[in-house]
Amino acid sequence: MIPIAKPMIGSEEMYAVAEVLRSGGLAQGSRVRSLEERFADYIGVSHVVAVSSGTAALHIAMLAHGIGKGDEVITTPFSFIATANVILFTGAKPVFADINNNYNINPEEILQAITPRTKAVLPVHLYGCPAEMKAIQEIADDHHLIIIEDACQAHGATYYNKKVGSFGTGTFSFYPTKNMTTGEGGMITTNDQKVAERARMLRNHGSSRRYVHEMLGFNLRMTDIGAAIGLVQLKKLDHFNVARRKNAEYLTGKLKDIEEISTPDSDHGHVFHQYTIRINDRDDFVSYLESNGIGTGIYYPIPIHKQPLYQKLRFGDSLPVSERFANVVVSLPVHPGVSEDNLNYIIRMIKEYTEVKL
After folding, report:
1. How many CB atoms lie within 10 A of CB 344?
2. Alpha helices in 206-319 (DSSP H)
């Protein structure tokens, strides 16, 4: 089986973890601080706060900006459910705006969704493809809105040579299948010192000094074990992303002329956390590939506003692009562990399918 995702862990990561274990200092410590400093340099921001997951990063970023009851946050319905759930966690209301052909939130739909209660916009750089940040930033400036970027799938992605996570307050996930990993973990990136200070307290029981608690907070810290893995992974990230782009461009070059398939655009700083195509008879297509040893993924089969929880909360708006794409998207293996032989086999199987089945 060619897996849809594969953590790229080597001897360097194992040695780094062993060093931490030998040190006896396993919780948040010097490795976390080093990873924060290096990730800040990498993204190009002044402050970085490491936390326990991407969801924690999103949640804390919301709270650090003072988002709460009575506020509205505009976001996409085409994402992992955590993107919207963190808005609910604060007591605020998610407002969904439909997407465009690159699966990201449509700036024109953001404009239509703004009300007097709108406090922030939460774009997602889905699959590693940057959202249209120039237009989103202009909208935010004109309407005095906070930007919180969900860059959980977009480590190293750029929009006009500027890294995502530096346009507003950024959030990243280091889940094992992401472009880089810490096992579990997340990161908040910002140029706002006050937001960073609040985020640091929120992740640590509302405390800036030991046993002095200034606000209601959480235990959402990263460990030095995870940070040790992350420090090695960050050194490899650009190399990983080059491999992902190369694999994606190879697939697109061979598949773009197949009429039944819509391939993704590799421009605009895409780092291909997922290589996602659209095909109408998806279930048969997925079954065919998997029966021939090719792993696939469907991200995401149900838009957030159609999830049972959100239906109970009466999110009933029609968002036709998201709903249509949810029925036809499928992701193919593109991670750095995919070889050229693997790619050629994937291409051959897809061509056999389209020639015989369609």
Report:
1. 12
2. 224-255, 282-291, 308-312
For 348, the 3-state DSSP assignment is helix
The answer to whether the predicted template modeling score (pTM) of the entire model surpasses 0.85 is: yes
CB 276 within 8 A of CB 127: yes
Dihedral sign for Cα 16, 17, 23, 28, please.
positive
DSSP 300-332: -SS-GGGSHHHHHTT-----HHHHHHHTTEEEE
> What's the pLDDT tens digit per position in 135-171?
999 999 999 999 999 999 999 999 999 999 999 999 9
Give the C-alpha separation, 128 to 275, whole Å: 9
User: Of 107, 120, 105, which Cα lies nearest the Cα of 72?
Assistant: 120
CB 64 within 8 A of CB 199: yes
How far is residue 76's CA from residue 126's CA, in Å, rounded to a whole number?
Answer: 10
Q: Give the rounded distance of the alpha carbon of 32 from its chain centre.
A: 21
**φ, ψ dihedrals at 37, nearest 5°:** -65, -45
User: Can you give 150-190 as a three-state secondary structure string?
Assistant: ECCCCCCCEECCEECCCCCEEEEECCCCCCCCCCCCEEEEE
CA proximity to 57, closest of 227, 226, 173, 156? 173
Q: Which two tokens stand for residue 63?
A: 């709270």
- Cα–Cα dist 205/235, whole Å: 31
Map out the domains of the chain with their CATH numbers: 11-231 (3.40.640.10), 237-357 (3.90.1150.10)
Q: How many CB atoms lie within 10 A of CB 143?
A: 12
Sole residue written with tokens 């780092």: 271
Residue 108 CB contacts under 8 Å (≥ 6 apart), including other chains: none
Predicted confidence (pLDDT) per residue in 277-311, tens digit? 999 999 999 999 999 999 999 999 999 999 999 99
The DSSP bridge pattern shows strands 158-159 and 169-173 to be: unpaired
